[in-house]
Amino acid sequence: MFGRRGFKFGPMGCGPEFRERFMRMRRGDIKYHLLEILKEGPRHGYEIISELETRTGGYRPSPGSVYPTLQMLEEGGYLTGEQVEGKKVYTITAEGIKLLEERGAPSFEAHPKMARAFEMRKSLMKLGSAAMDGVRDADDETVKKISEVINKARKDVYAILAES
To answer: What's this model's pTM, rounded to 2 decimal places?
Structure first.
């Protein structure tokens, strides 16, 4: 089955099935992850999102899920937000620390398959970038050679999958 955008890579693809299987947090967990990050010190939203991505092995939540959660936590008294140099910086409060202690620290261990998938994605992005750079202003012979390398790599990957 193809993803919503009509493309698929490998047996699972990169569509909704991939996201559901490897990147979804349990409902309500994001607030604990955000508080855990803020426990280490004040940060603005982009820093929080980047740190969450680092800790989870590549899962990057959308700003549409992070900022409303930060606002909810602020309204609940679990953190404070203040403008610093044009950015809203969030700081955990004593109530926020108490909430974390009552729940216990969330685990930031990435699912092993998720971490591997993101490492593979980085490699594929680098390969794609190199190929596009190579063919952008290249002559026909260079484009043909690059295409042959990529097609051979694809066939080699399928051969490996057929063996396993």
So the answer is: 0.53
Give percent of the chain with pLDDT exceeding 70: 74
- Residue 150 CA to residue 164 CA, distance in Å, equals 22
The domain of 57 spans 16-108
Q: Are residues 131 and 74 in the same domain?
A: no
| Integer Cα distance of 4 and 15 in angstroms | 6
Q: How far apart are CA 47 and CA 50, in angstroms?
A: 5
pLDDT digits (tens, 9 = 90+) for 84-97: 889 999 999 999 99
| Cβ-contact 115, 57 below 8 angstroms | yes
CATH number at residue 58: 1.10.10.10
- Within this chain, do residues 73 and 22 fall inside the same structural domain, yes or no? yes
Phi and psi of 89, rounded to 5°? Answer: -105, 130
Structure tokens at 39: 């426990």
How much is the average pLDDT of 52-80?
Answer: 87
**Phi/psi of residue 149, nearest 5 degrees:** -60, -45
